[in-house]
């Protein structure tokens, strides 16, 4: 009997996919102009959508940490990389051919091709896959802790907490007071984006009390507010966009992402809790990976066809809607093509 899908995972996955596209429609942010209403709107969009990328890491951790209950480690590695690495290579190749044909890239040799891929220079938003692959490689070890059940959950919280403190909280506040510190003050067991996966697993498997959830929500909202106001203030001092707080490894990013994940974790979604709605959500959620792969290409082609002005209030607020649904339609249609669909969008 197939395992029943977790409803809030699908809902959060779909929302995160839309918000990632919204972020990428949001290029005004990088043309620093604090006096312009459009720039401040762009920063606001950046903040409210900021949870999206961390949410994908958190869902991965929540979904995959118990893989040993279903299949072997060899099968886990095979499934993960066949479903992600092969399509990534194929679409990177397609985009590279397109760029070469347009005269945007001149290939020197095979080493140059490898360099472009490893540096996400073919498509910059593909950077996301490298930390995702790193998380995949950590999960076989972490899954052994998960096998211990609830009594071992505290270890996930410990690893995540230490990782966040040493990579985010301590460096940020040390810099604010001009306190020098050694670059070797790190917590190597939970660096990079791994704390998101650890927290995703922990929160998915723990039912927190009402008061604890309320405190987390308050902290998360405060983090989002500080991300907005702090970025404005720090950018004014710097004279250009300061990215410290809108970095995905900032403490503000962690606080807001945890809050959003927990909010969806605690929702019942009664209107969607029926077979038909679940099936639709499952199909749409299952297309998110493909949508991510092609949404920048979709955005480019949409702009060419429509001539839409991207530096406008309309695009900043609503540009993600046509891009998402066009990309979704393409993915769902291609998925129906035998063999090709499974290769391009598994």
Q: Describe it for me?
A:
By secondary structure, the chain is mainly alpha-helical. It has a domain at about 45-50 and about 145-285. The protein has 15 helices and no strands. It has helices at about 5-25, 35-50, 50-65, 75-100, 110-120, 130-145, 155-175, 195-205, 210-240, 250-265, 275-285, 290-305, 315-320, 320-335, 340-345. α2 (about 35-50) packs antiparallel against α9, α4 (about 75-100) packs parallel to α12 (about 290-305) and α7 (about 155-175) crosses α8. It is globular and about 55 Å long. The model has no long low-confidence stretch (mean pLDDT about 95).
Helix content: 55-70%
- Multimerization status: single chain
The total count of strands amounts to 0
Shape: globular
Quick one: biggest sheet? none
Uncertain runs are: none
- Could you tell me the strand content as a percent range? under 5%
End-to-end span in angstroms?
Answer: 22 Å
Overall pLDDT: 95
What class would the helix/strand composition place it in? mainly alpha
Please count the helical segments. 15
Radius of gyration: 21 Å
> Topology as H/E string?
HHHHHHHHHHHHHHH
